[in-house]
TrEMBL record:
It comes from Streptomyces plicatus. It is found in: Cytoplasm. Keywords: Amino-acid biosynthesis, Aromatic amino acid biosynthesis, ATP-binding, Cytoplasm, Kinase, Magnesium, Metal-binding, Nucleotide-binding, Transferase. The lineage of its organism: Bacteria, Bacillati, Actinomycetota, Actinomycetes, Kitasatosporales. Belongs to the shikimate kinase family. This is Shikimate kinase. Its cofactor is Mg(2+).
């Protein structure tokens, strides 16, 4: 069984796809996105799956896509924003090099406009984004090897910060309190 070099997690719109492609390029490896895997397999957008089949059906597809990608892919892997909601998925991430790309709500507004094309943000997107992050932040942190804040950074700067964080993940000042070996780069 193979394993990805790096797994990216974080909220929708944080830049997992862009940073993932840049990381893969820098490392000379492949890039894979589980959301893209689902869209290709289903022949529908994620928004269409949510509308037609519901969130629980999408989450089942997502769980399988993540399991398959973790077993098959040896490069950089980006997971959908909600993949960490599943306890089995979080278990599969144990021992992986997981980078949590974080951003605050102001950055989310700037990047995505919190548009309603994203199915979980269809009504009152700013409030829903905050609620999603309140529910998910601790799960992202639970699976993360390193946390990289993306606020105000270019994708290239985030890529460099992620590589630097993974290279220097030994315990030192600046580590996440109570979490030996995990660093937050701001």
């Amino acid at each position: 069984m193979s394993a990805p070099l790096i797994v990216l997690v974080g909220p929708m719109g944080v830049g997992k796809s862009t940073v993932g492609q840049l990381l893969a390029e820098r490392l000379g490896t492949g890039y894979r996105d589980t959301d893209a895997d689902i869209v290709a397999a289903q022949g529908r957008t994620i928004a269409e799956i949510f509308v037609d089949d519901g969130e629980s059906a999408f989450r089942a597809l997502e769980k399988e896509a993540v399991r398959t990608a973790l077993a098959e892919h040896e490069g950089v892997l980006a997971l959908g924003g909600g993949a960490i909601l599943d306890a089995d998925t979080r278990g599969l991430l144990a021992g992986q090099q997981v980078v949590y790309l974080s951003m605050d709500v102001e950055e989310a507004v700037r990047r995505t406009g919190l548009n309603t094309a994203r199915p979980l943000l269809a009504v009152n997107p700013r409030k829903q984004w905050r609620e999603l992050m309140e529910a998910r932040r601790h799960l992202y942190e639970e699976v993360a090897t390193v946390v990289v804040a993306t606020d105000g950074r270019t994708p290239e700067e985030v890529t460099r910060a992620a590589l630097d964080a993974l290279e220097s993940k030994s315990v030192s000042p600046g580590d996440v309190p109570g979490t030996p070996g995990r660093r937050t780069l701001r």
